[in-house]
Structure formats: structure tokens, C-alpha cells
């Protein structure tokens, strides 16, 4: 039996990935700080999903997770993520630590701890990064820092695949219709998230499952967003001047999204 560890498993994307892997016969360790959410994801699923409550920013929790894997990990999927939308001049040190800890430090540390096992199994690391790992978001600089860093870390690991045997796949979604996106819409997150229609979580999960079968280093969803951002960021200065104008174009979509989900006006 093949073994997978999935972080952020209680969220919409993570839960769909866990169920998809279990249906394929994987023994899945489902990791999340939300213990109650973990208990729900295995209902009605053929296959084995083992809930493992864990705060990925606590080193002792991560060590316990690694020990529970007992030297068996063929697939590591990083899904866990948080975003802070507080204006940077008002962000607390604790918020910085949490955002960088969950989005960047935890994936690096967990990958480091499981890397010998992944090498032994010639395994695969898959991570949900973000289009925000290529495009700076003025409203969420800590998020941008964490996702730029995570993408760089994973590309560096991918450069060693022939040497180590560990495959690496990066998935960069645009906006995904999850509670985190609704939180951003309610608290002043970037209007750029709403330039297009937010993707359903299942589409991201399906792409991850496809990458398990046919690995590739980087996938952007939608593909057009990836090409647009990569092209624009060839000249960061002009791109940064254009982004406020693009955000204004997207503001109508943001307003309609908030109305559709019953999100009230943001109060400064």
C-alpha cells in the first residue's frame, strides 16, 4: 500500500484530495489543526484515512507527525495555508509568525523531516502554492513573502530530482472559492482575487490527483493567469504601476461576490 501525508486536510481542497487518494488505495494521514474537521473527512470513503490533529507551527507536533509516519511516506501534499489581510503597518508580530510559519516554515520543516523517507521510496512532494507566489499582493505582503519563498524552495528541490529521486510538483491556483477567500473578501483582501471567477476546490484537488499520476514541476490554474503574471513580472516596475488599475477592474466582481455570500461592507 502507498502512503500519503496531506496537510490542511480539513479544508475544502485538502479534504477532496484525501478522499481522492483514499479512493485510489492510499493510506492517508490527514493533518490539520482542526481536529473536529478531520473526523468528518473519512465518512463514506473507501480506503483508510487516519486523522492526525497537528499545529504545524509547533515543532513537537511536527515531530509527533513524523514519528507517526513510521518511515512510510510515498507522497507528501502541502495544502495548509493562512492569509492575513491587516494593513502591514498594523500587523502584529504574532500574525507575521503565524502566516510565515504555516505557509513557509512548516512545509520546509516537514519536507526536511520526511525527506529521507521520501528518498527511500522515490516519493513525490506536491504543494498548493498560489498565483500569489509569482505576483505581489499589496494587501497581503506576508502572504506574498511566504508563497514566493515556498515556490522558490520547491523549485530548488525540483532541481535535484535526478540526484535524489524525489519528484516535486507545484500547483499555483488563482482564487479558489473557499472559506479563506470569503475571509479575504470580508476583511479587505486583494480585489485581484476576483479578476476572474473563483475556481471550485474540487478542480484543484483533481489537478493534484492528476499530478500524482503524471508529475510535472509547475502547473498554473487557470493556465492563462500563469502566463499573464509571468509575462507581466518580467518588468516588475511597470507591472506594479498597472496592478491598481487591474484591481479597480476587478472591484465590481468583488462587490458581487460579497453580495452573493452575504458579506457586508468593510468598516475601517
Overall description:
The chain has a single domain (3-260), classed as Rossmann fold (3-Layer(aba) Sandwich), CATH 3.40.50. The chain has helices at 12-23, 35-40, 59-69, 93-121, 141-158, 161-164, 179-187, 201-213, 223-232, 236-260; strands spanning 3-7, 27-32, 48-53, 75-78, 124-128, 167-173, 218-221. The chain is α/β, with parallel strands linked by helices and 268 residues long.
Keywords:
268 residues; alpha/beta; Rossmann fold; seven-stranded parallel beta sheet; 7 strands
SSE order and pairing:
Blueprint: E1 3-7, H1 12-23, E2 27-32, H2 35-40, E3 48-53, H3 59-69, E4 75-78, H4 93-121, E5 124-128, H5 141-158, H6 161-164, E6 167-173, H7 179-187, H8 201-213, E7 218-221, H9 223-232, H10 236-260
Rounded Rg: 18 Å
Helix content: 40-55%
SSE sequence, one letter per element = EHEHEHEHEHHEHHEHH
Mean pLDDT: 92
**CATH superfamily annotation:** NAD(P)-binding Rossmann-like Domain
What is the makeup of the main sheet?
7 strands, parallel
Low-confidence segments, ≥5 residues, pLDDT <50? none
Derived structural class:
alpha/beta
What is the count of structural domains? Answer: 1
| Assigned CATH class | Alpha Beta
How would you sum up the global shape? globular
Quaternary status: single chain
Report the β-strand fraction as a percent range. Answer: 5-15%
Tally of helical runs = 10
Q: What is the fold-level CATH name, i.e. the topology? A: Rossmann fold
Number of strands: 7
Task: Please provide a brief summary of the model.
The chain is of the alpha/beta class. It has 10 helices and 7 strands.
